[in-house]
Amino acid sequence: MRPLRLFHASDIHFGGENEAAVAGAARWLVDNPVDLAIISGDLTREGMPKEFAAARAWLDALPVPVVVTAGNHDVPYFNIPYRALMPWTRFKRWLGHLVTPPPVEGLAYAGVNTARGVQPRANWSKGQISRAQVRRAIARISTGPEGTLRLVTCHHPLVEVLGGPMTGNVWGGAGAAEAFTASKVDLVLTGHIHTPFVQPYPFGDGRTYAVGAGTLSIRERGVAPSFNAIDIEAGSVTVTAQQWTGTRYEPYRTWQVDRRTPPPPERVEAVPPPQIDDVLIGADG
Ligand SMILES: [Fe+2]
Ligand SMILES: [Fe+2]
Question: Structural domains in the chain?
Fold first, then answer.
């Protein structure tokens, strides 16, 4: 396979974005082209039209292909009837054309919306993933030749992050993570907790990794604004969290993890040439 390079940002929260960090990320992409930029939700702060317009303008100006998923802040946050009845009308209007990426050689992609406008629990901002969503995602990524990177993006971490500053508390999350591991998904990209991390799911062969991006907003949770640069090679994935220093991006943490090794090619047993005696016996018999 050819190496792939991805840009993974999340929780930009336009309306409450760190303006310098957001502008700096766009400049970084000019200097460091990638195959795909992935934004894993919470593009806005309160789901307001002017916030979606700012998100759209920034995304449209990026010099690389872009794909987005929705987050819990991408609904009309404080308009409860609107949020309950039409949670995704604005998101679809402004960003709906960006939920499917253009074809990228070597990449099989599925985006899943784990956010909901309302839920039958007090904290509606936590995540949910249904079995039907998991099935559809697996169907979408189960394509491509050996070595294809199988990637799922959603907003909430499906399994809680050790030492994370908050929870995703995703209904259906553990089952989804187990199913993605069994289906040989390589990476599940998320946001929501505003902190970068990489950890394997505790299921199956341990080769499906949860990757979280930090925030590019002013709502920091113990880590400066950051995004992830993800380099994929045949045997490894390297995630580098690039942190905003106030004037530029610098590597903050790097994780390198092993990819699944492809099964060895089928061995074809060499057939020995017939011995002269065998040929004579065969002719006589
Ligand atoms: Fe967020
Ligand atoms: Fe969120």
Answer: 4-284 (3.60.21.10)
Task: Tell me the CA–centroid distance for residue 31 and ligand 1, in Å.
Answer: 27
What is the number of the ligand closest to the CA of 220?
Answer: 1
User: Which pLDDT score is estimated for 267?
Assistant: 73
Are the C-beta atoms of residues 154 and 176 closer than 8 Å to each other?
no
243 alpha carbon – ligand 2 mean position (Å)? 20
**What are the backbone dihedrals phi and psi of residue 19, each rounded to the nearest 5 degrees, phi first?**
-60, -45
Whole-number percent of the chain with pLDDT over 90:
88
Which ligand is nearest to the Cα of residue 155, counting in written order? 2
Residues 130, 113: contact at Cβ < 8 Å? Answer: no
CA of 154 to the centre of ligand 1 (A): 12
pLDDT at 275: 66
